[in-house]
From TrEMBL:
<dbReference type="Pfam" id="PF03799">
    <property type="entry name" value="FtsQ_DivIB_C"/>
</dbReference>
<keyword id="KW-1003">Cell membrane</keyword>
<keyword id="KW-0997">Cell inner membrane</keyword>
<dbReference type="GO" id="GO:0043093">
    <property type="term" value="P:FtsZ-dependent cytokinesis"/>
</dbReference>
<dbReference type="InterPro" id="IPR005548">
    <property type="entry name" value="Cell_div_FtsQ/DivIB_C"/>
</dbReference>
<keyword id="KW-1133">Transmembrane helix</keyword>
<dbReference type="GO" id="GO:0090529">
    <property type="term" value="P:cell septum assembly"/>
</dbReference>
<dbReference type="GO" id="GO:0032153">
    <property type="term" value="C:cell division site"/>
</dbReference>
<dbReference type="InterPro" id="IPR013685">
    <property type="entry name" value="POTRA_FtsQ_type"/>
</dbReference>
<keyword id="KW-0812">Transmembrane</keyword>
<comment type="similarity">
    <text>Belongs to the FtsQ/DivIB family. FtsQ subfamily.</text>
</comment>
<dbReference type="InterPro" id="IPR045335">
    <property type="entry name" value="FtsQ_C_sf"/>
</dbReference>
<dbReference type="InterPro" id="IPR034746">
    <property type="entry name" value="POTRA"/>
</dbReference>
<feature type="compositionally biased region" description="Low complexity">
    <location>
        <begin position="32"/>
        <end position="41"/>
    </location>
</feature>
<dbReference type="InterPro" id="IPR026579">
    <property type="entry name" value="FtsQ"/>
</dbReference>
<dbReference type="GO" id="GO:0005886">
    <property type="term" value="C:plasma membrane"/>
</dbReference>
<comment type="function">
    <text>Essential cell division protein.</text>
</comment>
Length: 322
């Protein structure tokens, strides 16, 4: 029997070029198949559009800078309001109060090295009272206040836990009396004035003249070169804030030695040698001028000033001194 074209049925699986896939039914299709035909379809979620900014690296850097500036400005404003400081201060005060309650409080204060410094000045400089938290004392600040006192040269303070403070001071040592107008003030080698009574220091050398205190160390360094002669110095007068006139043995009637502005130490040693070899002060000499290196100008109580050569023999010099 001959087949006609109508007798051949070509299914989708038999069409050339079409591969048969395994039958898979998704859960969505099954749900859709199970749902009634007239059931409403669920609405799909609508996605909101996203805003995307296309920024260059420079714009990103500028934005980060603005953000950092805003943070800094806000922090500064908060800091200047004083709230963080008050919070820190209150917390610190509470901690110190607690340490004092546990026994770390000022119970004993000792001082060594004090001779002339008034006690009330030391108490004010310490700024500490019995019962204060000993851990709350600013050691550096106390030391600075104590060393600012006129009579104190150096100071050291230490905590001796749990409750003792020890203060050690080195007072300024008077080396001379500075005459200003008609008053007298003690000074140390640094030229610092030392307030207080003069009792016990009346025999110190007297310094007079403009700028004399600031040159005190220079003066005593010079005098120390000849200790025996230095022990006889009673006064030193600063002339024109340039040089010294030295008075030996007596402020009013003693021998006056006029030292030069330059080569002062050489002139001072020369005077010491003359005193050892010729004893000028014992020959009614009231003034000796050493400002000219190769000459002496002498003045006695009976005669006017006389120029003598420093190289002259002792006999000739002695004759002229008479």
């Amino acid at each position: 029997m001959r087949l006609s074209p109508s007798d051949i049925v070509i299914t989708a699986d038999d069409r050339p070029g079409v591969r048969r896939a395994p039958r898979q039914i998704s859960a969505k299709r099954e749900t859709a198949a199970a749902a009634p035909a007239n059931a409403p379809r669920p609405k799909a979620k609508r996605r909101l559009p996203r805003l995307r900014l296309a920024m260059t690296p420079l714009q990103k850097l500028a934005g980060a800078g603005l953000l950092a500036t805003a943070v800094v400005v806000s922090g500064m404003a908060l800091w200047h309001s004083g709230k963080p400081q008050r919070l820190i201060h209150d917390a610190g005060t509470a901690v110190l109060a607690w340490t004092a309650e546990t026994g770390f409080q000022v119970a004993d204060i000792t001082v060594t090295g004090r001779r002339r410094t008034p006690t009330d000045q030391l108490v004010a400089a310490l700024g500490a009272r019995y019962g204060d938290p000993i851990l709350g004392i600013d050691i550096a600040a106390v030391r600075a206040r104590v060393e600012a006192l006129p009579s104190v040269r150096a100071a050291a303070i230490e905590r001796r836990l749990p409750g003792a403070l020890h203060l050690s001071i080195v007072e300024r040592e008077p080396v001379a009396l500075w005459q200003t107008d008609k008053s007298f003030v003690l000074v140390d080698r640094d030229g610092r004035r030392i307030p207080g009574a003069l009792e016990g220091f009346e025999d110190l050398p007297l310094i007079v003249g403009e700028g004399a205190p600031s040159r005190t160390d220079e003066l005593f360094t010079l005098l120390a070169a000849e200790p025996e002669l230095a022990a006889r110095v009673k006064a030193a007068v600063r002339v024109g804030n340039r040089r010294w006139n030295i008075k030996l043995d007596d402020v009013e009637k003693g021998l006056e030695a006029r030292l030069p502005e330059l080569d002062t130490e050489a002139a001072w040693r020369r005077l010491a040698e003359l005193e050892k070899t010729r004893a000028l002060s014992g020959k009614q000499i009231t003034m000796i001028d050493l400002r000219i290196p190769d000459r002496l100008i002498l003045k006695s109580a009976r005669e006017p000033a006389v120029n003598t050569a420093s190289a002259a023999p002792p006999a000739a010099l002695a004759g002229r001194e008479r």
